[in-house]
Amino acid sequence: xxxxxxxxxxxxxxxxxGMVLQRDSMVLIWGKGVPNKELKxxxxxxxxxxxxxxxxxxxxxxxxxxxGGPCDMVINHDGDEKLIKNILIGDVWVLAGQSNMQxxxxxxLDLFEEEVKDADYPQIRQFTVPMVYDxxxxxxxxxxxxxxPVTPDSVNSFSAIGYFFSKKIYGKYKIPIGLLFTAxxxxxxxxxxxxxxxxxxxxFREILSMCKDNSYVQDTIMKENEYxxxxxxxxxEADEGLRDAPWFSEDYNYNDWRDIQLxxxxxxxxxxxxxxxxxxxxxxxxxxxxxGKEGKLVLGTVIDADxxxxxxxxxxxxxxxxxxxxxxxxxxxxxxxxxIITVRVIMTQNIGGFVTDMPYYIKIENEQIPISGVWxxxxxxxxxxxxxxxxFQYKPTGVYNGMIYPLRHYSIMGVLxxxxxxxxxxxxxxxxxxxxxxxxxxxxxxxxxxxxxYVQLANYCPWRLEPEVSGWAYVREAxxxxxxxxxxxxxxxxxxxxxNDLHPWDKKSVGERLALWALNYAHGENNICSGPIYDHxxxxxxxxxxxxxxxxxxxxIKGDKAxxxxxxxxxxxxxxxxxxxxxxxxxxxxxxxxxxxxxxxGWADNPEKANLYNKxxxxxxxxxxx
Length: 626
What we know:
Blueprint: E1 10-11, E2 20-22, E3 26-32, E4 38-43, E5 46-51, E6 57-63, E7 68-77, E8 80-97, H1 99-102, H2 109-116, E9 121-128, E10 147-150, H3 160-173, E11 177-181, H4 195-198, H5 205-211, H6 214-238, E12 258-262, E13 275-286, E14 295-299, E15 302-303, E16 305-310, E17 313-318, E18 326-329, E19 337-347, E20 353-354, E21 360-364, E22 367-370, E23 373-383, H7 398-404, E24 414-418, H8 430-444, E25 452-455, H9 471-481, E26 488-491, H10 507-523, E27 533-540, E28 543-549, E29 555-557, E30 565-568, E31 575-576, E32 578-582, E33 585-589, E34 598-601, E35 612-614, E36 623-624
C-alpha cells in the first residue's frame, strides 16, 4: 500500500515530528506498510525489525524509555524511509471533557496576560485530536493532527488547564510533558462512552438508533444550516439599524433613543421578551494624550451575540453568549474628545443583557476609561426565537468512537477530566455514567487502575437565580462518591468559579490542583492533594458529627462562622445549621431539628459562601450524608 504522498509507510498522525512518548512504559509504534515485507525502525541506537502482516499492519514495542530527548526515529521499509524528528520522552496525559477543559489560555488573559506572554516551554507539547464523531463503529486511527510546543506564539491556543498543570510539574522535575487534547465543549458524559457499555442505560437507546441513520444526521444538519442561514438573513433584512443610514455610523443622530443602565440583564424591562436586535450606544471622551493610540475594548460578556463598533468602524463580533468580549481597537481610530461605542446585540434564544459583575472599560496603555453607566438604546428588529441547533458531537458514543478509541495504542500516564455541566439538567444517573466513562477508558488502554484525575464542578448560577433542585449539587455529589474508585482523584473548585460565567477564568488554580494528584502518582510525592472530603457521620445526642478524609494539617473555617451547612430530620426538610470544628471533625446542629437525620454542605449551584478548608488552603467538597 502507499500513502497519498506515495510513501509505502503509513503512520498515525500521533507518531509524528515533536511527539512525546511515555517514559518507563511499554510504548507501541504502529502503522501500515506493504504486506509480507520487512520493516526496520531505528531509535536511540537500537534497531527493531518486524514483518508487515498479511493485512498490511505492523507494530513495534519500545520498553522502559528513559525521560529526555530530543531524538529522532528512522523507519525503513521496501525502499522508503521515514524520519520522525524532535521526539521527547516524558509523561503523556489525555485532556478530556467539555468546555472548561477546552478553554484556551487566550480566554484567561484578564488574569494571566503578563504571566503567559513570554511562555516558552518547548518540552511541553499538545496534540489536538480532531473533532470527529461516528455512531456506527469505533474509528481505528486519527486522520489528522500534529504536536505543538508551548511558545509565545502558540500558548494562547493551549488548553489553559493543561498549560498550568504542565508548567507546575515541568517546573519542578524538567521531564517533558505531552498533552493529548480531546475536550469538546457541550459534550455530556454519554458522548464519551462505548456503545456496548451505554446499552445498559435505556434512555439512550432511541437517540443512538436515530443517529445510526446517516440520512437522519445529514438531513438534520442540512435543514438546520438552511434554517439558521434564513433566520439570520431575515433578521438582517428586518433590522432597521442596517438600512440606508446605518445606526453604527459616526454621524447618526440617536438623541431620541431611550436610556438604559448597563451592565444589567434585560429581564424586567421592555426588552425582556425581544428576540432579534437591540442597538446600544455609549459616548466616551478620550483625552488628548491617548488619542490615536491602540487600545482594547473590554466589554464584559453579552447575551447572546454582538457586533461592536467604535466611530462607525466594526472592531469585533462574537456569535454566541459565552466568550468574554475583548476587542482590539486599532491605532488611529480613537480621536481626542467624543467617541461613540455602538453595540448591536442579537438575542437568539435568551433574554438579552450585559452580564453584571464583569469588567467594562477601554484600556489604552495603562489607563482605563470606564464605559458602565447610562447607555442609549433602540430596538432594531423583532423576530421569532431561533430554534435550537442539534449538535451531533453531543450524542451518545459519537466522540468516544471518533476521538478516544483511536488513541488506544498510544501509551499514556493518565487522564485529566473536566466535565459534568452538560449533565446537570438530568443529574440522577451521572454517577453511573461517569463511572462507566472511567471503566470504559481503563479497558480501552488495558489498565485496570489507569489514573483518572478529575475536576468537580465549580460554583455557577447566572443572575443568582438558584433553582429549587440543584442539578449542579447532584453532579458534584456523584463526583465526590467516585473518589472511592482506585486511582481516582478529584479537584474541588467551588472557590474559583464565577456565578456569572460558566467558564471561570482562574484555570491556573484548577491546573495546579490537578497537578498535586499527578505529582503524587507520577513522582511519588506525598501532597495533600484535596480539601476535606466527607467520609461518614455519627450521631451525638441532637447533633451530627462529620468525619473527613484529606484534612491535612487540620480543618479551618475561612470567616467568622461556618456557612452553607444545613440539617434535617426524617422529613428531609433542610434548615440552616450551626457548625463548629472539633479536632478533625465538624459538629452540626440546628434548633429547628430535634432528631437530626442528615446534613448537607454547599448544596447549591453556586455555594459561593462555603468556607470549610484544610490548613493547606484547599476547599472542602460539597456533600450530603446518607
